[in-house]
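Researcher: Please translate sequence to structure tokens.
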Amino acid sequence: MATFGLTDEELLALPLHFSPELFKDQVVLVSGAGSGLGKAIAIQFARLGARLAICGRRAERLEATAAAIRKAGGACSVHTMTIRDPQQVDALMAAVWQQHGRLDVLVNNAGGQFPQPAIDFTVKGWNAVIDTNLNGPWYMMQAAARGWRDAGSGGSVVNIVAVVWRGMPGVAHTSAARAGTIFLSKTLAVEWAPLGIRVNCVAPGVIATEGMNVYPDEARAEFDRSNPMKRFGDVQDVADACCYLAGPSGKFITGETITVDGGHQLWGEQWTAGRPDYFKV
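Model: Translation complete:
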């Protein structure tokens, strides 16, 4: 079975497709930055000149990301917390403004789910995913928007969601939560436009990160059939989309979702909990 994820050295060596000073003097907050997509996104923003604030639940992972950022010459503050607690979110935003004096970009990357047939979900399991993938991003967006409103500065939100257009068999809970975040973003893009706040989403398909290891071997073995390119994307595909939306290139884009899925929304099958026998014939 294939292994997923890049080392810190490999992340720092990825070729940059944007100007190295694109986000100079800007502050970018990335949630779930201790591993996978969040780590790659945070490191790329730092390599493009941004000062980083990163948050997540596991201090040791966050410190490893911060060390990689500092190795590349960037500045980074670390905040251990959970986005599922609105009081911790408010404290996070206050700390970011106090330590950095500003916030320019929020990347809502933190999230999580587990593969399971929907008929077998427990109430606890359902609520845990909805809380992490819908309520948490909402708390972060609202707290960031209030800070921007009070500072009169405006800002940009990029939410990492999922390709929900054809449903997501095996992870119905995250499909519901991510769809909620997408349409919440569209609504907020209109409500918050007078404040100079843009709200957009990036929807990755199958991306080669260690997060793929939560899925059964049977499911992962078929993930290359999920799109007409018949392969995985890489973390920079997603990081580039975030930078495009957050940077000057996205200044006239709000309420949109950039889909980075190799064409999955057009063709392919993705059974995150394994292909049911009914669909094997």
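Researcher: Any highlights?
Model: The chain has eight helices and seven strands.
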